[in-house]
């Protein structure tokens, strides 16, 4: 740490930290985490069968990808998430925007959507398996059910928050209802929709793992359940790490998309 | 009624339903006319119904009884013939200044060549030539309000309605904007209805002041600033020094006081 900060306290109320400091802090916490892990497993503090050392987990991850075709499982998982999520978004975005724009449409769908939100998606797994068998359909259906109702509600609420003055301005410029929705409300709410999608994508990953653990022979979750049978804890931990890295990757991708698509939000004063 | 009225307010009453069978009468039996190419200022204490009247002119609110007539037609909902500028910023943040100003023309099907030309003209008129390709978030409050004014004017409305358009601006910017409005009115011959509760602003801008009393809002007096001799004065510093300015200001102050007491 540089000695320049002799006067200013380390903890400053609501003062943003420098890039350098945030990088060091972020790395620091991970170094501590892995330090404890290495220490605990190498000194025998924990049972090595249940908690393998990190270096072994990373070796296994490498092994899985390059020796045992784990990449295809990962690809299957990714395509399930993207496929189901795209379908959910394709329904939720237009419906949410329309519900947020027209109270008459909200009055129709809102009671229905709210009710479904309180039903935990995994409780549908048994019936989905009976309806759709063991193919891709029940997994996609679970992900779809798991995210769509939250997505609709979030998007509807964001749409309602579009300021009334913007709508009224468009009306006094001669816009009809359709034009107001398409050219004012939708572009105004689009940044918030992107944020909502980003948040719900994380939830989609959660349901994916549930689906694959409960009822699948392919995908990351299925690999982890197979590993459990042979007590391969290192493989299970590999699966967890891969899921985490994928989740983080998609999150960063969405963040980048947000910055790229909405440059006008950046220099706000 | 006068032949050259751009806008006529005929016996307007507006009551708001507060639910549970209760209602509040915001304005009652309002009658006045806005002459073509004139600047009409609605002045009155807070809550007297200025915004309500303006919103009814815009068609954003429906009168409980009476009618508003523009160019021989009764107002029935919002339309491009009555452009409105709000106190809050209404710039479309996702569009550049130029695209903001083109917005109305685009949705109304004005051909691209004419659209670009008109946008250019009005952007320059409000002094934003250098910022045509900036986003609204990169502009100051006063500049954003100019975007809103240019956007409305470029859409060629018969009447420009403004509800405390400079209320959120600092004193100096507000002053500049008031002078800009006189300049715009002279150059475009647009009929304007401006709501304010700022006495100075009212006196400087108005060809006619419609003073409203409150609870419920009624027209208390129509005042034509006589000291202007029927001519607009583009320089505010000069206007305040003219004979009769101070007199009118104290008269309006007196009216405001009277109304203020009425509320207590
Ligand atoms: N949507 C509404 N619902 C109920 N009452 C309303 C509504 N809009 C206005 N009013 C009432 O009508 C009256 C006039 O309101 P209005 O906003 O027109 O006043 P104003 O002269 O513009 O005041 P200000 O100078 O503070 O903006 C007020 O008593 C207000 O409470
Ligand atoms: Mg008002």
The name CATH uses for the topology of chain A is MetI-like fold
Q: Are there runs of chain B of 5+ residues with pLDDT below 50, and where?
A: none
Q: What is the typical, i.e. mean, pLDDT of chain A?
A: 91
Proportion of residues in extended strands of chain A: under 5%
Pattern of helices and strands of chain B: EEEHEEEHHHEHEHEEHH
Beta strands of chain B, count: 10
Q: Report, as a whole number of angstroms, the end-to-end distance of chain A.
A: 32 Å
- Based on helices, strands and strand pairing, what is the structural class of chain A? mainly alpha
Question: In percent, how much strand structure appears in the residues of chain B?
Answer: 25-35%
Rg of chain B, rounded, reads 18 Å
CATH superfamily of chain A: MetI-like
Which architecture of chain A would the CATH scheme give at its second level? Orthogonal Bundle
Shape type of chain A: flat
**Count of structural domains of chain A:** 1
Q: Which H/E pattern describes the elements of chain A?
A: HHHHHHHHHH
What overall form of chain B do the CA principal axes indicate? Answer: globular
Oligomerization category of the chains in this entry: heterodimer
Question: Kindly, what is the distance between the CA atoms of the first and last residues of chain B, rounded to a whole number of angstroms?
Answer: 37 Å
Query: What structural class results from the helix and strand content of chain B?
Result: alpha/beta
């Amino acid at each position: 740490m540089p000695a320049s900060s002799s006067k200013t306290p380390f903890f400053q109320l609501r003062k943003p930290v420098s890039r350098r400091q945030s990088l060091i802090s972020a790395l620091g916490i991970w170094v501590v985490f892995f330090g404890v892990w290495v220490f605990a497993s190498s000194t025998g503090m924990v049972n090595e069968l249940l908690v393998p050392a990190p270096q072994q987990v990373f070796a296994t991850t490498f092994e899985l990808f390059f020796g045992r075709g784990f990449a295809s499982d990962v690809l299957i998982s990714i395509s399930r998430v993207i496929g189901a999520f795209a379908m959910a978004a394709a329904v939720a975005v237009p419906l949410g925007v329309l519900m947020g724009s027209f109270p008459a449409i909200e009055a129709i769908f809102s009671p229905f959507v709210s009710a479904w939100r309180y039903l935990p998606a995994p409780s549908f797994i048994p019936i989905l398996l009976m309806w759709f068998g063991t193919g891709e359909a029940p997994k996609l259906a679970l992900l779809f059910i798991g995210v769509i109702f939250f997505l609709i509600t979030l998007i509807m609420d964001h749409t309602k928050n579009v300021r009334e003055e913007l709508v009224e301005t468009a009306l006094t410029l001669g816009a009809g209802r359709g034009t107001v929705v398409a050219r004012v409300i939708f572009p105004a709410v689009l940044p918030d929709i992107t944020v909502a999608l980003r948040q719900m994508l994380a939830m989609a990953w959660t349901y994916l793992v549930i689906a694959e653990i409960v009822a699948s022979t392919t995908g990351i979750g299925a690999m982890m359940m197979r590993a459990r049978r042979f007590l391969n804890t290192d493989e299970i931990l590999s699966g967890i790490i891969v899921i985490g890295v994928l989740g983080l990757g998609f999150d960063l991708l969405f963040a980048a998309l947000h910055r790229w698509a909405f440059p006008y939000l950046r220099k706000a004063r | 009624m006068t032949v050259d009225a751009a806008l006529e307010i005929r016996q307007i009453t507006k009551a708001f339903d507060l639910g549970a069978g209760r209602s509040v009468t915001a304005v009652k039996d309002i009658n006045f006319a806005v002459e073509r190419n004139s600047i009409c200022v609605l002045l009155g204490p807070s809550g007297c119904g200025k915004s309500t009247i303006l919103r009814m002119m815009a068609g954003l609110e429906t009168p409980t009884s009476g009618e508003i007539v523009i160019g021989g037609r009764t107002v029935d909902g919002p339309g491009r013939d009555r452009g409105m500028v709000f106190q809050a910023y209404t710039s479309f943040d996702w569009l550049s200044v130029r695209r903001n100003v083109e917005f109305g023309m685009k949705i109304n099907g004005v051909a691209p060549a004419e659209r670009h030309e008109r946008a250019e003209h009005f952007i320059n008129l409000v002094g934003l030539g250098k910022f045509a390709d900036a986003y609204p978030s990169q502009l100051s409050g006063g500049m954003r309000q100019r975007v809103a004014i240019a956007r409305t004017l470029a859409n060629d409305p018969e009447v420009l309605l403004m509800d405390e358009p400079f209320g959120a601006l600092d004193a100096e910017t507000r002053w500049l904007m008031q002078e800009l409005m006189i300049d715009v009115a002279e150059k475009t011959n647009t009929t304007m209805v401006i709501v304010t509760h700022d006495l100075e602003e009212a006196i400087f801008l108005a060809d006619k002041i419609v003073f409203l009393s409150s609870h419920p809002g009624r027209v208390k007096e129509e005042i034509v600033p006589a000291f202007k001799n029927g001519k607009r004065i583009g320089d505010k510093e000069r206007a305040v020094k003219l004979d009769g300015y101070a007199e009118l200001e104290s008269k309006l102050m007196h009216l405001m006081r009277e109304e203020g007491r009425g509320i207590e």
